[in-house]
Amino acid sequence: MAEGSSDIDTRVLQAVQQNEEGASDSLLAQLLPDTELGKRVAAYNRLLQAGKLSLLKSGSEYIYKYKTKEEGGPSGDSQERLVFQIVSAAGNKGIWCRDVRLKTNLSVQPLNKIFQNLVSRKLIKSVKHVKNAKKKVYMLYDLQPDKSVTGGPWYSDQGFESEYVDVLTNQCHRFLQNKYEDACGKHTDPITIKNSSYASVEEICEYISALGISKVKLSADDMGMVMDALMYDNKVERSFDPSNQEALYKVVNSPLNSTPMVKVPCGVCPVCI
């Protein structure tokens, strides 16, 4: 005979009650080996909605804990669950406090109290937005904020890290310069020297990571932005690997230092204005 939802709810609730500190789904799966994951999740949702369980965060796992009547009424619990669901749906871009207030019709003080409770339980967190440091967005505690929120690795406390970017670009340029000089020392054929001077974004990332100058881990896309900046400054040139279309970069070496005179028109040739 198939087990009814009320029977599963009772078994889950009893298993959680046996653990005063709460129980994770992995623990409940061991205590209730004959229950399927989908049925356990459905039971969790029903018990949370009924106010019989509370949801906590421990490390990377969610903990279900038995909730006594003294720990709060069902009205407050339903509002808290609603706020949590709205924040969860926002993903890693987060949601403004004002938008949550509009969606829940809660006033400022009760909503702030719910936010404080969820933050203290490490279910959600507040993050300052790079475009407006005075406003906070809320997202799930274990999410990495989107770059549109933090500004990426080039921003710290909503300020652009110009010195950090300068150091990073200089080191990338030095790496390509050294690679070119090594190629010149090993080869004499100009074509071989040129081909040996190219480096991929992954190679440059490994070099920067080994130096330890970056406060955060840079992705290939982040490093590609640095190389694009060097390319626009005419310090590096880009090519593509014909086998996989991977972007490759090499340092630009000018054989002679040009003077402003070389850019002055001769006065004889017609010049289009």
What this model shows, in words?
The protein is of the alpha+beta class. Helix content is 48%, strand content 17%. It contains 11 helices and 11 strands. The strands form 4 sheets. It has a 3-stranded antiparallel beta sheet with strand order 1-3-2. Strands 4-6-5 form a 3-stranded antiparallel beta sheet. The protein has a 3-stranded antiparallel beta sheet with strand order 9-11-10. Helix 8 packs antiparallel against helix 9 (190-196) and helix 8 crosses helix 11 (220-232). The chain is elongated, with a radius of gyration of 29 Å. The protein starts with a helix and ends in a 22-residue tail after the last strand. Residues 69-76 have low confidence and may be disordered.
Provide tags for this entry:
273 residues, elongated, 17% strand, single chain, alpha+beta
Cα distance spanning the termini: 89 Å
Shape: elongated
SS summary, helix count: 11
Helical percent range?
40-55%
Listing every helix as H and every strand as E from the N terminus to the C terminus, the arrangement reads HEHHEEHEHHEEHEEHHEHHEE
The largest beta-sheet arranges its strands as 1-3-2
Residue fraction in strands: 15-25%
Class from helix and strand fractions: alpha+beta
Work out the radius of gyration: 29 Å
Residue stretches low in confidence (pLDDT < 50, at least 5 long) are 69-76
Question: What is the typical, i.e. mean, pLDDT?
Answer: 81
Largest sheet: 3 strands, antiparallel
Total beta-strand segments? 11
Task: Summarize the entry for a quick read.
The chain is α+β, with helices and mostly antiparallel strands and 273 residues long. 48% of the residues lie in helices and 17% in strands.
